[in-house]
Amino acid sequence: MFTIIIKDWPPKGNKKSRRCETGSKTMKNTVVSFIALTGIFLLCCMQSTAIASVVVDRVVAVVNNDIITLSDLQREAALKKIDGKGDDRTLLEDMIDRKLQMAAAKRAGMDVTDKELSEAIADIMKRNSFDTKQFEAALAKDGLTLEQYKIELREQMTLSRMFNKYIRAGITVDEAEVRAHYNRNINMYTLPEEIRLRQIFFPIPDNSSSREIADVQEKAQQVFARAEHGEDFTGLVHEFSQGATASQGGDLGFTQRGSLLPEMEAAAKPLKQGDISPPFPCAGGYHIIKLEEVRKPVKPYEKVKDEIMNMLYQQKVENTYRSWLQSLRSDSNIENRL
């Protein structure tokens, strides 16, 4: 509060009346000027406070006669839990695409009616056993009101209609395309390399002495020398090998590389088809192995046909969708101001 003190007021005597009257006018002018200045100061403060309290928003994109604001973009990012400038730019492009599609739907008369929207929400509530309060509570957990959800759902339903009509309709994949893709990309359906080994096994009995172990090793070395000189390996298996595989001619079957015991894996690694390894200790005895066959098995066409057909269909859908969006963009006025 401001207090103005004026000495010798009110005036005393008639001689000073004119002077006091003049002083009175001057004082009144001073008071009026002070009040005016105070009012202007307070008004400026109020305006400054009002300006400071306004949330700044701006247009980040223009799509024909429609706009997208920064607050629209931020709300969309919050709903999709996106954070980052690069992500914002991608999200804005997606919002532009959706506005173009919604405008195209309106021109084509494919809008979702209020009745259709209500029926869709009723169906969602029924499938989730929700009443209205439970449904609104579930939406609130995701940061949505019922009205906001209706807007989102209407858009999703409309875009789905547009997608089915302009993208999915007419797209097919015939078996000739599937077969051609399979033949061109056979390596995509080739499994890891497999090897087929045959072995001669010389077991070392438990509690064997060092002399007994040396005798087993010597015997394995002699059999290896005979195999190296060209004797039939399967015949040597039947003559010398012991253990479960002996009755099968020592055949271990096909196995993917890397899945054998480490000692056997190391012995097989340098072998080429038809080669025989020197004896090596492994799993309670000495082994001699022969690399019988190497193969790269291929998945049969019938087992991958559906997989290929689905992949080719999705490729066609994506290509058609991109082309359609590009045509919508080329026919529109778009400004990205982000």
Number of extended strands: 7
Number of domains: 3
Radius of gyration, CA atoms, in whole angstroms = 44 Å
CATH superfamily of the largest domain: Porin chaperone SurA, peptide-binding domain
Task: Outline the structure in words.
- By secondary structure, the chain is an alpha+beta fold.
- It has three domains: 1-54, no CATH class; 59-171 and 324-336, Porin chaperone SurA, peptide-binding domain (Triger factor/SurA peptide-binding fold); 191-295, Chitinase A, domain 3.
- The protein contains eleven helices and seven strands.
- The protein has helices at 17-53, 70-79, 85-107, 114-127, 132-141, 146-168, 175-184, 210-228, 233-240, 262-268, 301-330, and strands spanning 59-63, 66-69, 194-203, 251-256, 280-281, 285-295, 334-336.
- The chain has a four-stranded antiparallel beta sheet with strand order 4-3-6-5, sandwiched between helices.
- Helix 2 (70-79) crosses helix 3 and helix 3 packs across helix 6.
- The chain starts with 16 loop residues before the first helix and ends with a strand.
- Residues 1-53 have low confidence and may be disordered.
Short description:
The protein is α+β, with helices and mostly antiparallel strands.
Keyphrases for this structure?
Triger factor/SurA peptide-binding fold, Chitinase A, domain 3, elongated, 338 residues, three-stranded antiparallel beta sheet, alpha+beta, 11 helices, four-stranded antiparallel beta sheet
Please give the structural blueprint:
Elements: H1 17-53, E1 59-63, E2 66-69, H2 70-79, H3 85-107, H4 114-127, H5 132-141, H6 146-168, H7 175-184, E3 194-203, H8 210-228, H9 233-240, E4 251-256, H10 262-268, E5 280-281, E6 285-295, H11 301-330, E7 334-336
Antiparallel strand pairs: 1-2, 1-7, 3-4, 3-6, 5-6
